[in-house]
Amino acid sequence: MRSLQVSVLSSVILMLGIAPACSQSGVEPNAPGTGSTAPVEFREGEQKFTAHCSRCHGVGGVGTTQGPAFLHKVYEPNHHGDVAFQRAAANGVKAHHWQFGDMPKIDAVKPEEVDEIVKYVRWLQKQAGIF
Description:
By secondary structure, this protein is mainly alpha-helical. Helices cover 45% and strands 0% of the residues. It has one domain: Orthogonal Bundle (Cytochrome Bc1 Complex, Chain D, domain 2), CATH 1.10.760.10. The protein is built from 5 helices and no strands.
């Protein structure tokens, strides 16, 4: 089972790319309409994730040097429920699992947008075998 999870995670990372969250050209990698791998029902969340989250959490949620990967067991729904994402966007988060520093609140994202982002993140996590 463990080797299957590693294989699925590796496939997801390869499909999504291991590019840095911000390209040198200033254009976000995997911008809307440029190679989405998400099913149609998750693309709105993917676009919002790319716009609001990928700078720190990486394209496809793989993390960067500025923020943790969401493709980690600590972010499974039983540990960080969907409401945790809402609170993080609305209030920011004090560093508690990682050494990336505090997450600022994200004023530009509305609660209904966070709902779409969470659906996309949960889809990514399922693809990676997180839950």
